[in-house]
Amino acid sequence: MDNKSIKKLEADLWESADLLRAGSKLTSNQYCMPVLGLLFLRYAYSRFKMVEEEILKTRPVRNGRQMPVEASDFAAKSALFLPKEAQYSYLVNLPSNVASMGLVNIDGQPMASLGEVVNNAMNLVEQQSEQLTGVLPKSYTDFSDDLLGELLRIFNNNALDEVGGDVIGRIYEYFLNKFAKNIASDDGVFFTPKSLVKMIVNVLEPKQGVLLDPACGSGGMFVQTGDFVNEAGLQANSSMTFYGQEKVEYNAQLCLMNMAVHGLTGVIKSGDEANSFYHDAHNLEGQCNYVMANPPFNVDKVKAESATNAGRLPFGVPKENKNKEIGNANYLWISYFYAYLNETGRAGFVMASSATDSQGSDKDIREKLVKTGHVDVMISVGNNFFYTKSLPCSLWFFDKGKSEDLKDKVLFIDARNYYTVVDRTLNEWNEWQLKNLNAIVWLYRGEIDKYKQLLEDYKVSIADMISEVGEDSLKAVNDNVFVDGCEIAKKCLKKVKEAAKEAIESCDRKDKKQTQSFWDEKIASVKEIVDVVKEAHWLYSKFGEGIYEDILGLCKIANVSDIESKSWSLTSGAYVGVAPVEDDGIDFEERMYEIHNELLLLQNESNQLMDEISKNMKELGV
To answer: What pLDDT does 299 receive?
Structure first.
C-alpha cells in the first residue's frame, strides 16, 4: 500500500468514526480515549496474529496435534499474548444480544452489554503487560451497543492487516492529531504538532542512551525518536531507554498507549510525583544523553521554595514575587533541560518566543547559559504551528559535546516565514522543508556529506515522481532539478490544468465525474512535483553544492561576543536581519483556485455548525 492509499485510509477511518460521534451524545473528550483504545486493541490483535503465525511454524506436534501457543512464546518476541476474549475477531463477531450468551468477566460477574465485554477485554490485555496496567480505557459502557459495534466494524478493515502495525501506529497518531484539534482542552498540551517534534529529533540525531521528556504529553518525542533510530538500522527498544514525566494522568495514558502501538517500552510517571517543578521523578540529573520536551509555557504561581529544594537549577533560581512564587516558569524548564544532560548530552525543546530575550533574572540565567558554550542552535518558528495557539515559538538546542571549533558559536535560524499552510489556522513544515532546515544545521556542523546526500535524494525522488505521473513535458526537469527545474515544472502544471479544463468541458455528461476525477488526480500529482522542485531550488540557491554562508533573513552563525553585544538575546531575528523582498513565485490563478476551495470549505463548516446548533436547540425543546 503506497503513501497515498494510506492517507486515504486514515481519512476514511476518521470520517467514519467522527460521523458516529456526531450522531451520538458523546463529546470529543468522552470519545477520544475509548476510540484510541480500540485502535490500540486492533494493533495488538494484528501483531498477535503475525507473531502467532511465526510461532506456529516451529511449534512441536504431539500425538498428532500441534501444541497451542502460550503467553511466554509472545513475551520472547516482545508481543502481547491475547486471550480469546480480548481478540478483536472475537469482539467484532459477537451477536447483537450479548446478554443471552451468559458471559462472565474476569471477576466472575455476568456481562449484559457489548460495552462490558470490551471493558473486560481491556482488563485481560492489562494482565499481560505491567506497562499497561491501569492505562487502557474502560468506559465502553458509556456507548450504546449499536455505536460500539459499528466502531468495532470500522476498525475491522482488512487493509489494516495488509499494512501492518507500523501503519496502525501512524493511524493512531492521525487520530490523536484530529482529537487534539477537536478537544483543544488544557491548551492542547497533550499533543505537540508532528513537524515540531520531527525538527527536534532531526537536529538531536538520537542514536543510543537515555532519553527523558519531563513534560511528555502523549509521547510524540518518544515515537519520533523510535522512528529515527529504527530508520538508522538500530532497534529503538535496545538502543534507547525512554523516561517520561507527565502530571496529567489522562495524558500519560495516551502516552503509554501511543508507545505500545509503536512497539516501544518506557517508564512513564504521572500524577503529583511527576510534577517537574517539584520532583526529579526518575533521579536523572546529569544522566541523560538526550532531553526533549514541549513544556507548558509561561506557567505562574510556582512555589519558589519547593522549586529550589527540588534542585536542577545550575544557573540559580528565577526571581520570586512577594507571594514567594515564581511568576513565570520558563527559565525553570530551561534550567532543568540543561541540568539533566550528561557531559556529552543534547537537548531540544519548544519554548515561548518571549523567553529568548526576557529581562530581569531570566537575562542573568541566559547569560550564564550562553557562557557555557553549550547553546547550539536557535530556531524561530512562525504563527499557527499549534492547534490551540496562534502565537509564535522558538526551538532551543543544547549540545554539551560540541566540537571545539563550535564551542563559542550559536547557529540562529529565522524560519518564521518558511512553512506550508495546512488551513487558515494551521501551518507546518512539510517533509522537504524539515530536511532543508536540517541541512543548514549539517553545514554549520561541517557535515557536508549529509547535505550532498540530500541533493541526491531530491534528484531520485523527483525522477521517481515524474516517472509515475508519465507526463513527457516534465522529463526536462530532471536535466537541471536545482536551477531551471522549478520554472519547467510550473509551466507543465499550467499546461496540465489547461488540458484538464478542455477535456472536462468536451466530455459527455455521463463521463464528466470520472474525467474530473482523473484530471484532479493528475493535477495533484504534478503540483506535488512542483512543490518538491521548489524546495530543492530553495535549498540549492542558498548553499549550492554545500558551502555554508550566512543568509540575510534566514541564518547566521554568531559567537559569544556577538550575543553579548545584543544584551544576551537569543532571538534569531536580532542576528539574521531582514531579507530583501522577493517575488514570492505564487501563481495568481493557482492561488485564486486555492482561495475558492478554502471558501467552499468554510461554507461547509458553517453549514455543519448551523445543523449542530439546530439539533441542540431541538433537544432543548427550543
So the answer is: 92
**HSE-up of 269 (CA within 13 Å, CB side)?**
14
Q: Which of 196, 184, 247, 185 is nearest to 220 (CA)?
A: 196
CATH architecture of 184-446: 3-Layer(aba) Sandwich (3.40)
| Residue of 59 and 488 predicted with greater confidence | 488
Cα separation, 232 vs 228, in Å, equals 6
Q: Which of 3.40.50.300, 1.10.510.10, 1.20.1260.30, 1.10.150.170 would CATH assign to domain 3-171?
A: 1.20.1260.30
**Pair 397, 356: CB distance under 8 Å:** no
- Cβ–Cβ < 8 Å for 368, 419: no
Query: What confidence tier does 188 reach under pLDDT thresholds 50, 70, 90?
Result: very low
The pLDDT value given to residue 187: 43
With H, G, I as helix, E, B as strand and everything else as coil, classify residue 58: coil
pTM above 0.85, yes or no: no
Cell of 3: 503513501
Count the residues in the chain: 622
Q: Which of 21-30, 202-211, 541-550 is predicted with the least confidence, judged by mean pLDDT?
A: 21-30
Q: Which three cell numbers stand for residue 398?
A: 543544547
For residue 186, the model assigns a pLDDT of 41
Minimal CA–CA distance to 277: which of 308, 252, 298, 239?
A: 308
* 192, 350 Cβ separation under 8 angstroms: yes
List the domain boundaries for the chain. 3-171, 184-446, 449-547, 586-622
Q: What is the mean pLDDT of the chain?
A: 89
